[in-house]
Amino acid sequence: MERSDPRAPDSPNAAVVAAREELLAEFVLEETPLGTAFLASPVGPRLRAGQVRAGFGRFLAELLAAAPDGAGIAFGGFTDASDELILHVPAQVGVRPDLAFPVLAAVTLKLAPLAYDLAARDPGIVAAELLARHHPPVRELERRLRAAPPTYAGWAQLSAADIARIFPVRTPLISDRQEIYRRLQLACTIAAEREVIDGLARINPGILDYLRCFPVARALKRKVVAWLGPTNSGKTHRAMLALAAAPGGMYLGPLRLLALEQRDRLVELGTPCSLITGEERIETSPTHSSRTVEMADFSRQFSVCVLDEMQLAFDRDRGWAWVAAFCGIAAETLIITGPASAEAVIRKLGGLCGDDIEINHLERQGRLAFEGVIDWRHVPPRSAVIGFSRAMVLELKAMFEGLGLSVAVIYGGLSPEVRRQEARRFREADADIVCATDAIGLGLNLPLERVIFYETDKFDGENDRPLLDGELLQIAGRAGRGPGATGWVAAFSERDARRLESALAQPQTVPPPDRLPAAPTPMHIRAIAEHLGLDRLVPILEFFRARLTFSDGTFFPEVRNDVLAAAALADTHVPSLPVETRYALACTPVDLENETARGLFLDWLDRLEAGVPVKFPARTDRGGLEALEETLQLVTVYRWLALKFPETFTDLEHVDLVRREVTEQTQAILRRNWGEHGLARRECQRCGRAMLPGSSYRFCRACYR
Fold first, then answer.
1. How would you class 608 by CB atoms within 10 Å of its CB: exposed for 0-12, middle for 13-18, buried for 19 or more?
2. Boundaries of CATH 3.40.50.300 in the chain?
3. Which residue has the higher pLDDT, 440 or 421?
4. Contact 226, 360 (CB under 8 A)
5. What's the rounded Cα separation, in Å, for the pair 405 and 453?
6. Is the pLDDT assigned to residue 6 strictly greater than 60?
7. Cβ pair 476, 451 in contact under 8 A
8. Rounded distance between C-alpha atoms, residue 269 and residue 263, angstroms
């Protein structure tokens, strides 16, 4: 399509073009290159003929800004009454002989003389002369700042780097003193904090170098051996054989259940092994131990350490523990397991640590096949049906038991003992199927023929979201365990089946390993407290999270919000304890949003402060499943605290009895046939998909959407 000629009488821009020609004729510039360029310049959609003089001023300003020496010059306005153009010209306010900050000075020029000057001379020369001008307001501000410097903390330490972080973005006008002083105050704050951090680094050079927080590991030349592959590829088996054959070492995993299983595996291989988790320390071997990753020992050297499920370094809540374990374990051989997507973070961390790296890729020992949509009325035995909440799993149990199936149940709220018992029921064919959350994706090897997803969305603590492909594969891979076995993956709806088929067909995405979480170590807590003179934990943790920057740029300071909340309670209720000890208390695995747990935790802190022994409270639960789980969570908190303060939390014999009772009662409830208790199954009125018994909707999620 041809464009209309702006000079044509019927063109909407004809009046503007005519006004431009009239202005150039008034200045006798119509035959000059400047005039020609102005006529050829674009006409803005909102430009009117009466605005042509201002438009010519903007054109001249842009001509100056485009000159080689005109960087920073900008159009500042036009005054019709006096026919004057305002230019904003860069200038420097000298604070000290070696330090200045940028401002914009307003220069007012008559339109016609400037136009004649630019028509006769090179715009670069005109721009250079403008930039070389002395601006009285700039000199006046310099005089004031030198005669009466601001009293901001950090003024004496202010540097060009501090100025560069605050001033270049939308440089302020010299007339806007309020904004200038606000930015100076911000720059001084940065300077003061930098001085504090530099002081911290002088006291402890390792505080800004995360890797130096682990001196035992840094003194050792390590070999990193990675076994990477999907589920059922034998990677953990290879790692545990190497650990069993070593003269000493550790297994580090994400769950207490996994630590239990790997301890048992080492014992079966003839290697005695201790079990060390956040709530227990069963020491049966001086050489080998199986631990949850947060209980890693950084203080001594090992022959071999196995760090399992390395992809969890990217976990929002616990990734810091895998990063610390990789960087801090002093093992001659560090064996890493995980999916192929973990290779990038292994190479990144291994390179930073100066390790020799060996990557081994493994293939699945069998086939994982997509089965499509399965009729929920005919779920075959040896299947796992996956939901993503405790309530959903229990309703699925009731629904399938109403169809005559025997159902085992596994979800994160159950204790490891109960989960192992439910897994045993399934392995020994006491249960036809298992209904589980994504807790089944880690630590349980079950003889599953297929994994069926009730849905492929989950609530992640903040939002309902679709599962990532890697999360789907981690769960789906539990099907078909063993060499040569075929594992089937299916769904109850077409929507979820399409997601699964896509996930199985696509390679896993690899998160960039350029932002890895680093939690504070006791060294950080102690150094910040001493240097800043702080005796409260919360400001120490806030300073670490908001102000500290690690030098290599890979790690970022991470303090979880729940840790900050617990730190505030520790500051209030146990102020006499050292800040390092209060930090340990802040990491207690207690649910502070649960009123019962919060109240007991505060009571226990008060007794700890008073030096009074803490007894576990008498049971008040009435035997319901949710109440039993809450009691087990309190047992976990008490046992965790007993490891840290054995002289105060002395009621372990009673606590162990409570744990056994609650575990047995939980198992008895789960063994019942819930389908006989009046929970009727329902169906989607559009597609016939299974609806949970407690659902109040007529349609399933896929049909509703």
1. buried
2. 210-361, 366-512+673-704
3. 421
4. yes
5. 18
6. no
7. yes
8. 10
In this prediction, residues 496-519 reach a mean pLDDT of 85
CATH code linked to domain 366-512+673-704: 3.40.50.300
Helix pair 319-328, 343-353: axis angle to 10 deg: 40
- From CA 701, how far away is CA 316, in angstroms rounded? 27
Residues 6+ apart with CB under 8 A from 604: 614, 638, 641, 649
Burial readout 72-93 (b: 16 or more C-beta within 10 A, e: otherwise): ebbbbebeeeeeebbbbbbbeb
Identify the pLDDT of residue 679: 45
Which of these ranges, 358-362, 399-403, 597-601, has the smallest mean pLDDT? 399-403
Burial of 652 (0-12, 13-18, 19+ CB in 10 A): middle
Check residues 553 and 501 and name the one with the higher pLDDT.
Answer: 501
Task: Work out the pLDDT band at 682, boundaries 50, 70, 90.
Answer: low
Torsion of CA 298, 299, 304, 307, to 10 degrees: -10
Segment holding 586, helix H or strand E: helix 579-586
Closest CA to 93 of 177, 170, 33: 177
Give the span between the Cα atoms of 191 and 439, in whole angstroms.
48
pLDDT averaged over every residue in the chain: 88
**3-class DSSP state for residue 211?**
helix
627/619 Cα distance (integer angstroms): 10
CATH superfamily of 210-361: P-loop containing nucleotide triphosphate hydrolases (3.40.50.300)
pLDDT at 1: 37
Q: Mean pLDDT throughout 301-310?
A: 97
Q: Which pLDDT belongs to residue 531?
A: 83
Whether the per-residue pLDDT at 693 is higher than 60: the answer is no
Where do we find the tokens 């929507």?
495
Task: Determine what percent of the chain is predicted with pLDDT higher than 90.
Answer: 57
Contact at 8 Å (CB) between 261 and 369?
no
Reported pTM: 0.74
Give the pLDDT score at 68: 85
- Under a CB-based contact definition with an 8 Å cutoff, are residues 308 and 251 in contact? yes
What are the DSSP calls for 479-506, one per residue?
BS-STTEEEEEEESSHHHHHHHHHHHHS
Beta-strand relationship, 383-386 and 280-282: unpaired
Average pLDDT over residues 455-474: 82
Amino acid code (one letter) for 484:
G
User: How many Cα atoms sit within 13 Å of 443 on the Cβ side?
Assistant: 25
Strands of 237-285, DSSP E: 249-253, 274-277, 280-282
